[in-house]
Specification:
By secondary structure, the chain is α/β, with parallel strands linked by helices. Helices cover about 40% and strands about 10% of the residues. The protein has 19 helices and 14 strands.
């Protein structure tokens, strides 16, 4: 798949000086190939959105933004993803300024002490939108961070905040308190804010804004009174009164809190403006690619409406710049991309993905930093693997052009790459991404996990921030890195992977539902190779055989349930 990369990088190195700090000249985009038709895709490859993530800093002039966007457009970008407001407070000098509820609230009162900063942040976004319009770039506009409403709102409505099981306020990664998505006060205020965003930004820039990002990295559960009320409405009883046999329902609910939030928010925008797409950019790091559950990733695809696109950050290295990149991270990423591609196919839900093209994503302060080939490979993986799994990739974006402390610009420490060289390499990848012809193929290996196992683990742990280690993808990712392997956990995604040659069942038979057992029994009867434990062999009334060669070397004939160890 990546054999062409060698020639690609030779051309890059001949064309530019790796130590040059100057801005590169525009590059003539590669000729567009004939349109490629791919099953399960809603749009042609030429309509793929590609570009940089870009911070609209209040101190940046219109001229600066226009010059940046002109170079991006000339070099193959057709879209730009503006930065989110991290954290969701009002501060024009912050590392990641953007639009959120707190900025809107401060703008409603010119006597508010935060008004000048809010005004500067909002005006910077308008300058960015004007610059994008001038250069015919489409914009993804973030308007929220997690479910943060800002300190002022939190103080006014303390009873509307998310809580952990012990009653403490949920504070994920110490990034700030968040509202309960089930709180009536939250829904009333955020709906009013959405209406303001529609009037102030979406309507006047309808030719520019193609999608709204409603939140970045929302995650976790919710044990607030509002969540309890929603649970009781849904299940007919309070979670305190669940019998031992019903405890899994608590886990099921908690695993879906963020999917509920995404679905409700997208539904509000469908009511306000059905012509604008919406998304949330979910964390694609350790709590997605290794151990997931808060949220349950599949619910992001299955429960959101048709105006919602699922976005993940999906970096080769998803950690601090001082921590070395590992081979496990890369293997986990490949399995993750295959899996979400299968989800996209099963639920006809488009994907947008971010690649790590910055000091953090390339581990520049570590003992084993990555470089330009890794950055470009990351971007190509984001298209190739989900598309091979039958997914619909709507857009791919390079994180990040100018974010302080990690971007191409605004990063003061030494790097393994020349900034100008990296920019040229990434921007040459943009037209390459838009003309790639990857044919979908049936997964070779389907790794089956049971939702009930996740729900039981969440209920037992009373987890609200980090999911318990109910399942770890690492041994599977290591062994199956170069196979077309996906993780499936529902009848719908199982059917999407029906043609797989191997089904590796990673949950005990007691956690599998009758439909899944029937599916496996049928595949076993067809001679498909199935691996699992002794409980699966008994449930399928099939002979078993010990498999001592690990997962990197799989059996070649069916006729028995092969008993394996993840180790």
């Amino acid at each position: 798949m990546f054999r062409a990369l060698a020639t690609f990088f030779i051309l890059i190195l001949v064309a530019c000086n790796s130590s040059s700090p100057t801005r590169p000249q525009p590059i003539t985009p590669s000729p567009t190939r004939a349109r490629v038709e791919i099953e399960n895709r809603k749009s042609e490859i030429k309509n793929l959105r590609v570009g940089w993530a870009y911070e609209a800093y209040p101190e940046a002039s219109s001229e600066k933004m226009r010059a940046d966007f002109a170079a991006m457009r000339a070099n193959g970008a057709n879209a730009v993803w503006l930065g989110h407001n991290n954290p969701g407070e009002v501060n024009a000098q912050k590392v990641e300024p953007g639009m959120s509820y707190a900025v809107y609230a401060a703008l409603q009162n010119q006597d508010d002490a935060l008004y000048p900063d809010a005004r500067a942040m909002a005006d910077a976004i308008r300058r960015a939108l004007d610059a994008a319009r001038a250069n015919d770039l489409r914009v993804i506009l973030p308007i929220g961070y997690q479910i943060q409403m800002g300190d002022a709102w939190n103080q006014q409505h303390p009873d509307a905040l998310r809580l952990a099981f012990d009653g403490s306020r949920l504070n994920l990664y110490h990034s700030g308190y968040t509202a309960s998505p089930y709180a009536p006060q939250y829904r009333q205020d955020i709906a009013r804010y959405y209406e303001w965003v529609q009037r102030e930004f979406v309507a006047p820039y309808s030719d520019v804004i193609v999608m709204l990002s409603l939140a970045d990295e929302p995650m976790g559960g919710d044990y607030s009174a509002h969540a309890q009320n929603e649970f009781a409405r849904r299940y007919g009883k309070n979670w305190e009164t669940l019998s031992p046999e019903e405890k899994w329902k608590l886990g099921e609910f908690q695993s879906g809190v963020i999917a509920d939030y995404a679905a409700w928010s997208a539904g509000e925008w469908k009511r306000l403006n059905p012509n604008v797409l919406t998304t949330m950019s979910f964390h694609g790091g350790d709590t997605a690619r290794r151990v997931w559950g808060l949220p349950d990733l599949e619910k992001l695809f299955s429960q959101t409406p048709e105006n919602f696109i699922v976005t993940f950050d999906a970096y080769l290295h998803d950690d601090l710049a001082a921590k070395p990149a590992t081979s496990d991270e890369a293997a986990q990423l490949k399995l993750f991309l295959n899996t979400i591609g299968n989800y996209s196919r099963a639920y006809n839900k488009p994907l947008a993905l971010w690649g790590g093209v910055n000091a953090w994503g390339l581990a520049q302060e570590s003992s084993a930093p990555l470089g330009i080939p890794d950055a470009v490979t990351n971007l190509l993986l984001l298209y190739d693997l989900p598309t091979r799994a039958g997914g619909n990739v709507w857009g791919i974006f390079a994180w990040n052009y100018n974010v302080k402390q990690q971007g191409l610009e605004n990063y003061a420490r030494p790097t393994t790459y020349g900034v100008g060289t990296m920019q040229i390499a990434v921007e040459r990848a943009f037209p390459l991404l838009r003309t790639r012809g990857i044919e979908p193929s049936t997964p070779t290996v389907a790794i089956l996990t049971a939702p009930r196992a996740l729900y039981n683990a969440l209920a037992e742990a009373r987890a609200s921030d980090i999911p318990p280690a109910w399942f770890d993808t690492t041994p599977f990712a290591r062994a199956l890195e170069n196979r077309n392997a996906v993780i499936v956990s529902s009848p719908q995604t199982l059917q999407a992977a029906r043609g797989a040659s191997y089904f590796i069942v990673a949950s005990p038979a007691a956690d599998l539902d009758a439909e899944t057992l029937r599916f496996l029994r049928e595949r076993f009867g067809e001679g498909v190779i199935i691996m699992g434990d002794e409980s699966l062999a008994r449930a399928l009334d099939a002979p078993s055989e010990n498999w001592m060669q690990g997962l990197s070397r799989l059996p070649t004939v069916g006729g028995a349930i092969y008993l394996f160890s993840e180790k």
